[in-house]
Specification:
By secondary structure, the chain is of the alpha/beta class. The protein has 15 helices and 15 strands. The strands form 3 sheets. It has a 7-stranded mixed sheet, with helices on both faces. Pyridoxal-5'-phosphate (PLP) is lined by residues 60, 116-118, 121, 152-154, 204, 208-209, 237, 239-240, 265.
Amino acid sequence: MTSPPTASEQRRSVTGRDIALVESVTAHNYHPLPVVIASGQGAWVTDVDGKRYLDCLAGYSALNFGHAHPQILAAARAQLERLTLTSRAFHNDQLGPFSRDLAALAGMDLVLPMNTGAEAVETAIKVSRKWGYDVKGVARDRATIIVTEGNFHGRTTTIVSFSTDPVAREGFGPFTPGFRIVPFGDAAAIEAAIDEDTVAVMVEPVQGEAGVQVPPEGYLRQVREICSRRGVLFVADEIQTGLGRTGSTFACDLEDVVPDIYVLGKALGGGVVPVSAVLSSREVLGVLTPGSHGSTFGGNPLACAVGHAVVRLLETGEIQARAAELGRRLRSRLDTLVGHGVVAVRTRGLWAGVDIDPALMTARELCERLLTRGVLAKDTHGSTVRLAPPLVISPEDLSWMVDQIAEVLATA
Ligand SMILES: Cc1ncc(COP(=O)(O)O)c(C=O)c1O
């Protein structure tokens, strides 16, 4: 095992110099691993000192198709030369075809394009509330939305208002009212929390940030059934679970469930530009009228061209099948580590939460040691490592990644 560079070696390297610059001129709202990436191709990236790493985080699934995917880049380049921004004050020729094909992929009527995931979640909240007032008949300003413990839906003030992570909330009050929090994976708790003011239930089909927490089998089906029976919208935040990661187009597909609203982001931008969207029926998205919601950059032609390339890549189902197959391999390899430094493994498609034995090391320490071996992964909640390599990763590279984890744990 290569030992990590000493402090003086690091200062001398380009990496050390670049990190020092960033630390001195940017807010410290992140604690990145000490690597400065300069280029990427497929599942691999190269740092400013020329060292290569296997990217096993893939921008929290924003890079499902890997770095520099040829079809996505070609679409971006072609559009870059033609037209990049119009605002929604005018039409552009990319929004229609992109939205038509995205809606068809999801089996929904309408698309509302935004940019970041948090904006799309905010959009889903606003739409759900307005649907509650205009269609369901909830009394003005009384609407509630049910969310789950351990949720991660973004960082805006409204969204952190219903976070259960103290670090995400501390110092950011006063908070937005109108949310009820129930345990994740507990459909009976959702049923009990619904009253006449409830307009929506918003869940991540698998909680990513919480450590790839997979709900009990049948949970999404139960949520669907409860929402339909009680006249409440089922909002699936598939920003991280959607678009191939779990071995299907949407994680809801795994339980043959269609929500009322899909919230998409991350991979929709092909790792090139931020593209998010809210998809729903005419009845639901139809509550919006000109001026009631919008975004200068949402639906811009560059974003739409890139998003359209992503939709085309998903239309054949190949990448989803690949994720499912590679996910099976990943799972069987990771299972062999349980009892050997790993306490538990949770997977859905090519996505894993691996709980490291805290007696051995923290997940952060594991990620730091993996870094020296050329593997990029990210810790969460102290003892969990998240693995979400690009879906284009080769089986050999995937296997090599697990070898690195096994060796780090064996030599701890
Ligand atoms: C499920 C989920 N929702 C929303 C978000 C927020 O997305 P963004 O960081 O693009 O605002 C994330 C980001 O990690 C996410 O995983």
